[in-house]
Each structure stands twice: as structure tokens, then as C-alpha cells.
Amino acid sequence: MKTEKLGQLPNQPSLWTRADALKVHTDDPTTTQPLVHWNFPVLSNEVFIWDTMPLRDMDGNVASVNGWSVIFTLTADRHPNDPEYIDKNGMYDISRDWNDRHGRAKMYYWFSRTGKDWQWGGRVMAEGVSPTTREWAGSPILLNDRGEVDLYYTAVTPGATIVKVRGRVVTTEHGVSMVGFEKVKPLFEADGKMYQTEAQNPFWGFRDPWPFRDPKDGKLYMLFEGNVAGERGSHVVGKAEIGDVPPGYENVGNSRFQTACVGIAVARDEDGDDWELLPPLLTAVGVNDQTERPHFLFQDGKYYMFTISHKFTYADGVTGPDGVYGFVADSLFGPYVPLNGSGLVLGNPSSQPFQTYSHYVMPNGLVTSFIDSVPTDELTTGMKFRIGGTEAPTVGIKVKGQQTFVVAEYDYGYIPPMIDVTLK
Ligand code: FRU
């Protein structure tokens, strides 16, 4: 293992400003996800799935193995018969079951010959392998043609630690299995100097690792979600964070409580076992409290950074839909500018504000997400809305310079491979 001291790289965070966020327009058809019909199919009646993590290589290419596509998903059992989730009318309270899912999230995998119609694989790690109660989002990386896979993910409660576990993908004519995944290695936690800790803010976020190789300098880095370090309430929303706003928009209210950032770390070794935290690439102080699951698309020599965010995590005086937001730069360390002026790339329509979430933009312009909840035709179904916990229709976007456009819609959970790796 080669270890080298990298020193401080030039890295000034770019700012997603309040002025940028004022340009966010819900329901612009070029940045709005087509309506998801309430009559959607579910992947499984036994489990809910949400964050979907396609198997990929370090360059971001979605990979199949011996012709088998593989996805990892955050997964939790559904409890239709558990007395704990039966309401006072004797009905299954699926909303409460769904809302409780984060506390029992586990990593599962699924496989397919067609890039859709996913077949159940099972749990990636056996019970007891992961050191904490929750297995939160990350990235499964196919390392080589021996089928070795590094799963980077977040071990949560107690604490939040970026970890990884190595295993192997094995295929037969009939399916795929994941073997190994027995030794979880802690990589790093928030440091309190650049990235906020739990002690500084009980609502802190530090999760969702996305390792990658920089196409320009060839080094191994990792994006993750964080909040800017400092005690809760101590952040300052100044001129820089506000940006160039029209008269009457200077009041920032309580927006100092919203402090999201996209973090980055650099590996000191080729295996990605030893990491150094660097200052955030992007901060959203005074704008939004969550920039989740950050990831890159490398295209035309540019760095397109995408991250998911919610309406409810926006600060006072700014708003936008649940969906995926994006920023572009000519070099890894920025400066980043918001795509489409505002940052919004693909948001939910106002008529179905919670229809999907956790969008992941693949290098082929296909965007996968999960169905959260969709309003129903109450007369037909007797319900106001239907909970998903399953794959949403994939959306196609075109990324052009500093703009993006919705251009296509595909089948539910369509995640076709971009490369096929034949195992040796
Ligand atoms: C996004 C997310 C991730 C987190 C997981 C927890 O949907 O909030 O940031 O890892 O879900 O369930």
C-alpha cells in the first residue's frame, strides 16, 4: 500500500446562494418529473425499498457482471400483520410503517437480465456484521474482473460513520449472489472543524459516500453529505450566502439553521482505506439543510455534481420541490455554478409533491428514483394517497453546458448497464 502526504489542496467551497434558490421554479416542464400514476406496480410486498444504488465502477459507469445487472437498495420489512402497525380501525397503517423505515434500514441487493423487473437477492451483510442499527446509503463499487466489490455506506445510530466492507459478486446461469461482506472497516466521521458533528447539532447529517476517480488527476476521492461545522444556530448568513437579491429580499429570517454542504475526502492510498477530509465543495448555508447522496457525472470535460434535497429542508424565504439539484464546474474543486441558474434539475410536480425521491443521475442521462407517496383517486381506492416503497419510472435528461432538459420517460426501475464485465 502506497501512502503519500498530499498537503492542502486549493479548495474554496462554492456557494449555493439564496439568490440562486429564488430562481427555482416548481412545475417548469423542463425540470419536472412526469406524473407518476397511483396505480404503480411494487417490487415486493414483503419489503419497502427506497435509495437505489446501481453497481458501478470507480468512473461512475453502471456495470453488469456476466450479463447480470445488480442494484443495491435501502430496504425495510413491511408489517401488514404486525399489531404495532394496526390502527384503531383495525387497518394496516402503512404510512407509519413507511415513515419508521429509516430506523431499520438494511442493505439488500437485486439482479436482472434486462435492467428492470428486479429479482430478489437478499441481504448484503448478515445480521450482526454491521456495527450500528442502521445501514444507510452509499455506493457498491465493482473493483475488478475477479468480481470484488467494495460497498461504501453509512453506519448510523449510534453516530454516523462512513464505512466500507469488501465482498464478491458471484453469478450463475440462474442468478447472482453476494459473498463475503463480513468485515466492516470504519473510514471517517465528521471532524467538527469542517463538518458538523452530532455534539454541535443533534440534527446533523454526515452520510452517503460516493467514491470516484477524478478523470483529470486520476486520484481517488469521495463525495458525501454533510453540514458546515459549528454549533447549531451559530452560522452567519451574510452577503455572500444571500447573493444578488432584489430589493425586499434581504431578510434571511431563521435561515442560519440550514447549513447543508457537499463534502469531499481524498484517499491517501490506492485501496481507499485511508482518507483525508478536505473542505466542502459546495455549501448551502441559509438556503437548505440537506444536500443528500451527492454524485458526479463527468461529461465534456466538466464536473456535473448532483445532490438530492427536500422542500421541508429549505430555509425561511426560499423554497423548491423535492428532487435532484445540480451544479457544474470545469475542475473538481470548482467554482461550481447552479445548473439552470437555480440548481433544480428534476423536481416533483406541485400536484404530487412527494411522488418520488432519492434521484440518482447515471452517466447515460437516465435518472432513477423511488416512489414515496402518490395521491389516488379516492372514489376508486378509498385512500387519499398510496405509499410506494418501490422503484419509480426512470426519467431521461439531457445535460447541455449549464442547462438540463427532461427528454424521456422509461419503465419502472429501468437501470440498464453501461458496461458489461466478464468475470475471470
Ligand atoms: C435519502 C436518505 C439518505 C440516507 C437514507 C436514510 O433518501 O435520507 O441520505 O442515507 O435516506 O434512510
TrEMBL record:
Sites where the protein binds substrate: 50, 137, 213-214, 290-292
- Report the domain of life of the source organism: Bacteria
Q: Which residues bind Ca(2+)?
A: 208, 289
- Which residues does this entry assign to the site Transition state stabilizer? 208
**Broad EC category:** transferase
GO BP term, pick one: carbohydrate utilization
Carries keyword Metal-binding? yes
What's the cofactor? Ca(2+)
EC number of this enzyme: 2.4.1.10
Which residues belong to the signal peptide in this entry? none
Give the reactions, separated by semicolons, that this protein catalyses. [6)-beta-D-fructofuranosyl-(2->](n) alpha-D-glucopyranoside + sucrose = [6)-beta-D-fructofuranosyl-(2->](n+1) alpha-D-glucopyranoside + D-glucose
Fetch the SUPFAM superfamilies from UniProt. Arabinanase/levansucrase/invertase
Q: Which Pfam families match?
A: Glyco_hydro_68 (PF02435)
GO molecular-function terms, A-Z: levansucrase activity; metal ion binding
| Key words, A-Z | Calcium, Carbohydrate metabolism, Glycosyltransferase, Metal-binding, Transferase
User: Catalytic positions?
Assistant: 51, 292
Q: Which InterPro entries match?
A: Glyco_hydro_68 (IPR003469), Glyco_hydro_beta-prop_sf (IPR023296)
Name the protein family.
Belongs to the glycosyl hydrolase 68 family.
State the protein's name: levansucrase
